[in-house]
Amino acid sequence: MDEIENNGIIEKSVSEWASLMVTVKKKDGGVSLCVYYRGLNVVTKFDAFSLPRMEELSVYLDDIAVNSTNWEIHLEHLEKIFQ
């Protein structure tokens, strides 16, 4: 933990929004960093609606016709379509 803190990957915090971090030793001797998000989950407001299913979106996707000869031209077409 000291090494990743010294490298600026993590930092100590006293914020009420900080989540606890613990280390868990792996079977191979390595270490996994685990974040305890239970406090965050308690205050998170979830959307009251579900994401659309692919069947619902396909109605809109069939109106998009993109014919490209290479990746760059394909990206240009997509930018025009979605602007």
From TrEMBL:
InterPro entries: DNA/RNA_pol_sf, RNA-dir_DNA_polymerase. It comes from the Eukaryota. This is Uncharacterized protein. It comes from Amphimedon queenslandica.
